[in-house]
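Notes from the 1:1 (GR / supervisor)

We went over the backlog. Supervisor wanted to see one worked example end to end before approving the batch request, so GR pasted a single chain during the call. The sequence is below; no edits were made to it. Supervisor asked that the structure be written out right there so they could see what the output format looks like.
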Amino acid sequence: KFNKNDIEYIVNSFIKIISEEIKKGCKIKVEGLGTFSSYIRRSYIGKNTNGNIEKIKDSTYINFKPSRKLKL
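Structure output shown during the call:
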C-alpha cells in the first residue's frame, strides 16, 4: 500500500519529468493516458485589462491529447 507521501512523490516526479522533456522540445506519449506536447502561440495584437491595444508576445503552451482508452 502507498501512503499519501508516496503518492505525492510519484505525482510530483511524473510532472517534473514531463515538464523537463517538453522544455527540451520532446513529445511524450504515456500509454493509456495520452500524449503531451508543446506548441508556440504566435504574437498577436490584443487588448489588455485597461482596454489599451498592445502586441502580445509569443507564448509556449503545453498540449495534452488523451488516448482513446482514457476517453472511454
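Supervisor's comment: The helical segments are 4-23, 68-71.
Batch request approved.
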